[in-house]
Amino acid sequence: MNLFGLKKKKNENFELNLINYFNSQNIYPNPVQLLLPEAVGLLNINENWKGILSNCSRKERIHKTIELWEESTSRLSLFIDIFKRKLISIDTILYNQELYIVYSLKANDGLIYYLGKLPKASYENSIINKLSNDIQDFYLHIHDGFVLFPSECMGPVSSDKFYCLGDDLLQNEFLDDYSVKDTYMIFSNGGGDGIVYDFSQNPPRGFTYFHDDYDACVLIMIQLMSCMNG
Questions:
Q1: What DSSP string runs through the chain?
Q2: Rounded to two decimals, what is the model's pTM?
Q3: Which of 25, 41, 174, 197 has its CA 20 to 30 A from that of 130?
């Protein structure tokens, strides 16, 4: 049934609905598997997250998750405010053969889901080390990426999915004051646009990049935030 650990009657419907939805939207060949708190407690993972995810109380998992965000980052208050009003569950899954934390959030008449990978112990030889301390803290202490499911966008992407604009663009197709071969997207809206940083500059210069129509590209972000704040 793709549930790891012992089921609890009061949680069974939510858990089954969650895993069934994820598998209905899964683009990878391997099925998504849900790990219950009892199973997570046996894993050798980040201690902060292990303490949260192995807690059998959904209310406590939510509370401790928000607490971790508040302690680890001061620049993502919008996310934290949304969590306090909309977050209804924190769960653990195996997705594309990797461990992810699922945030289930109320949105209008339904739910939306964000996925966060466990933070890496270090980011040696990664461009993350060139970013501001606030961004580094997020990747080191909260998540190695935090994206909307199933589109895997609308948030900071995992470090192994940083996208160099120079892979698709020539310098004469880019901004004069920026180096396209050194510019990486770290926040994607799923349409080829997002927040990018030029790492040829010291400190790296970040800006919002739109490859086409500004109004059309930003509409996705506005609709999502409206949905979550409704």
A1: --EES---HHHHHHHHHHHHHHHHH--SSSPPEEEPHHHHTTS---HHHHHHHT-S-HHHHHHHHHHHHHHH-SS-HHHHHHHHHHEEEEEEEEETTEEEEEEEEEETTEEEEEEEEPPPS--TT-GGGGS-HHHHHHHHHT-S-EEEETTTBSEEPPGGG-EEGGGT--GGGS-TTS-GGGEEEEEE-SSS-EEEEETTSSSPEEEEE-SS-HHHHHHHHHHHHHHHH-
A2: 0.86
A3: 174
